[in-house]
Write a structure and sequence with these properties.
Elements (H helix, E strand, L loop, with lengths): L10 H15 L10 H8 L3 H8 L2 H19 L8 H18 L1 H9 L6 H24 L6 H20 L7 H19 L5 H4 L1
């Protein structure tokens, strides 16, 4: 019986395949441990072809981090059709689900902020800025003034939320409890920024 014919991938399809493999591998190793040789072997291609797509190991790492950040931001994007409070519920629920469902990959991703590669650090930082910007957009809808303190608080809360979910030790626990805790902390932070504001009633 003749061997089954291989499906030839287009360059874009091959690159997408390699990035998906790279993101999967992040679930079991750090960014610095991602190996060009291992990925090429798993994809069934030559090491030289890997360098054709990514130029260098650093270029591959950057592309994997960029793809992972884009996936995370897409999965946690706010639904503008919802009112502010239901939107916050939905975003925090999606955030908790994403991190717990991709825990090892997410840990490797956020730890990438400590990478020696400046581009990798910037990609992770840009994802955090996007999250903080989403919070600020919600605050604007609630009538909170855009101040340096509010912007600082939003960014700090994003990092706090990251560490909280990563540190969660009950993978089979009540995720809604964790999301509700994050919501209370965000409301508390916003109330500290503007003590005169009743954030919940505005929402």
């Amino acid at each position: 019986m003749p061997a089954p014919r291989r499906t030839r991938l287009t360059p874009d399809q091959r690159r997408a395949q390699l990035l998906l493999l790279g993101r999967d591998l992040l679930g079991s190793r750090t960014l610095d441990e991602l190996s060009i040789d291992e990925l090429a072997e798993r994809a069934g291609i030559s090491r030289g072809l890997m360098f054709h797509y990514f130029k260098s190991k650093q270029g591959f790492h950057r592309a994997v981090v960029e793809a992972a950040c884009e996936d995370f931001l897409a999965c946690t994007a706010p639904d503008s059709a919802l009112e502010p409070l239901p939107r916050l519920h939905a975003v925090l629920g999606a955030f908790v689900d994403y991190v717990l469902d991709h825990r090892a990959t997410y840990v490797s991703l956020v730890r990438g902020a400590a990478s020696a590669d400046e581009t990798v650090r910037e990609l992770v930082d840009a994802a955090r800025r996007t999250q903080a910007s989403r919070i600020l957009a919600g605050c604007a809808e609630l009538g909170l003034a855009d101040t340096p303190l509010l912007r600082t608080a939003a960014r700090a809360w994003v990092v706090f939320a990251e560490e909280t979910v990563v540190a969660w030790q009950e993978p089979d626990g009540d995720r809604t409890e964790l999301a509700a805790f994050l919501e209370r902390t965000l409301v508390g932070v916003l109330s500290c920024v503007d003590p005169a504001a009743d954030v919940l009633s505005r929402a």
